Amino acid sequence: MSPDLFFQYLFAGITYGSIYAVVAIGFNIIYNATGIINFAQGEFVMLGGMISISLLHFMPLPLAIASAVALTMLIGAAIEILFIRWLQSPSVMRMIIITIGISILLKEVALHIWGESIRSLPYFYGNEITTFSIGSVHISPQVVWVILASAVMVAGLNLFFKSTPIGREMRACSANRTAALLCGINARNMVTLSFMLSAGIGALAGCVMSPITYTQYDSGSALALKGFTVAILGGLGNSGAAVLAGILLGIIEAFSVSVVPLAFQDAISIAILLVILFVKPHGLFGSGDAARLKDF
Amino acid sequence: MKRSIKCLALGGAACCLALSTMLAPAWAGTVKVGAIFAVTGPASFLGGPEARSAQMIVDEINKAGGINGDTIELIVKDTAGHSEKAVSFAKQLIEEDKVVAIIGPSTSGESMAVKKIAEAGKTTLISCAAAEVIVNPVAKHVFKTPQKDSFAAQMIFEEMQRLGITTIAITAGNDGFGKAGKAQLEKMAPTYGVKVAISETYDSKATDLSALVAKLKSDVSIQAVINWSVVPAQAIIAKNMRQVGWEVPLFQSHGFGNIKYAQAAGVAAEGIIFPCGRLLVVDQLEESNPQKARLVQYKSDYETKYKEDASAFGGYAYDAMNMVVEAIKKGGNDRAKVRDAVEGLENFAGVGGMFSFSPADHNGLTIDSFAMMTVKDGAFILYQGK
User: Domain-by-domain residue ranges, chain A?
Assistant: First the structure.
């Protein structure tokens, strides 16, 4: 393989990986606060893209994205308050089934509002064919935006969870809900907040990736599946690890194309995931001790 | 006494009269037509416009007083793209609703699943799906309106011969349309002296294809790419090819005939060559074109009513519904007569082309139903060659 081709695959892999990673981060927040996987996470990504595209008719791009993120956060909060908040100590399985139901509901609503056609935001910089060239290797500026967005998200979340009072309260709820309640933390509000936060992050992800992947009412589920894989691969609950795992998975997928037909791409990535989970059941960067304290 | 009898008789007569006028509309009756479309689900880009187009015709006809005084009732069933739902809906329409004919389904897989049921129920089925196997071999009651896939492949290869292209790559979505098209292309390529260097399928939900493009580009013998799919990936592949500065011609299937895909690919769509029905370039057609009046009517009616671009997909159902209407005019509410009337249609100007059915041909179109097109300044135009 020539060096040029090697780097072209590498950058293709980073493109895939950054998309997976940016979706995976959203899974981790709700997992951290509630111990459940929110299967409607992909729909938050779709909603962010769709709302920003619709708002773009009335306002400039940065404002449209900011409003889409804010609106999706409100939707996230509304969903938590309507469907989850009033449940008396729900089981993990029940909450997961509820999120699957919400995912279907959001998809159908989106189909009725936006129809079945594909839409996309314009490229933030340049147009569809603008690329930065490094030697003979080309990379789209939008990919840089996606990587930048995931970097900012990871850094911001770390800061939020480690050094703000609310962030610490959320972590306390996740570590031990009863103890957190005894310390006077309102655990229900923390769960609402985690839904808002992950909805906002999903929406931002949906906006930055929309020019690359396009947005359609049902584009969320496929993205969520990959994002979920990556979240597990990195170790649930760890956003930095999700980014590394995402880029790793993307690169593996890209290079797999060079040796086997593209149709086997997913089979390869899932096979690798299985192997890793056999060897390291808590993900590449997860800790076994911490995982034993969780429900699953 | 006499007087009271007279009164009674008068009253009775009046009653009869009143009753008869009340019953009159019921005697004229309704003709039921079934429609099986994938209005939601992954094939909703087909089923959505199809259901709306068919409903539009029915609304217009009923508003104008129906056919020979009969109103038409269109019963639309949404399969969400599932064959098993299509099968149970077809049975329900034939056995319970007693429809005179069925239009749809939207996809080839569903149409093949329903084919036998229409045959067994002796009910005309006009499919809106592309695969050739739907009407080949011919089944007595099964017709289809979209152009054959093989016409599209044939046009692409003929254009390649003109351009002197001998080595190509084929990419296709892993859905029914992509797989059937890929097989067709691989089979036909040798007859046109074209060698297929690489042939790949991608997931229909693919979000980026730059690794695939890197692989294709590394084979320097490839002079052109044919992409065959109906999913957003057809805009993605165009974008990824131009991003790495790969300037070989990109041919697409008739599945690209939706301006949304060209808009999504933006400048990367410029120069894509693909065969499609003439609906997309209706403004550029000459007045003498026999299809022109029908195309203009469909486009303006649909776009005024639904405030969205008319697509070739909706056109498939528009043609199917118009054929059924034409057949009901001749055969009334009689399944056998309606079937014969559909098979007897000749030089029927549709959105998809000029249809002439015969007992041996239940598609009724020739290769002229396609025209070669390209994208220029974000719009579809007739392709004039290089």
Answer: 3-292
